[in-house]
Amino acid sequence: MASVTQQAARLPARRIPFLPALSRAAAVWISALTLVFGLISLFYLLLTSSIATAGYDIQRLQAEQRDWELKNEQLQLELAKMQSLAWVEGRATQLGMRKPDRVVTVHVTLPPARNGGDDGR
Amino acid sequence: MTAANAPGLDASGGNARLLVLATLFLGVLLVLGFRLYQVQLLEHDKFSALATAEHRGTIPIVPRRGAILDTEGHPLAISVLYDSVFVVGSQVKDPQLVAQRLAPILEMPPEEIAAQIDPKSTIPVLVKARLPAAIAARVRALGLNGVFLEQAPSREYPEGSIAAQVLGFVGRDFHGLAGLELSLDDVLAGKQGAIESEWDTTGREISIARRVVSPAVEGTDVVLTLDRYVQRTAERILANAVLENKATGGVILVMNPRTGALLAMAHVPTYSLTDDEIYKPGHDDLYKPVWVTDQYEPGSVMKVITMAAGINEGVVTPRTTIEDKGYVVIDGVTIHNWDGRANGVIDMTQVLVHSANVGSQFVSGRLGKERFYHYLELFGFGQPTNVGLPGETPGLVRDYTAEGWTRLDLATNSYGQGVAVTPLQMLSAVAVLGNDGTLMKPMLVQETRGPGGQVFQPQAVRQVVSPETARTLRTMMVAVMNQPALEQDRVPGYVIAGKTGTADFATTSGYNTGKTYASVVALLPADEPRLAILVRLDAPEKIYGGIVAAPVLKQLVEELVTYYRIPPSADVHASAQTG
Question: Is A61 on the interface with B (CB under 8 A)?
Answer without folding.
Answer: no
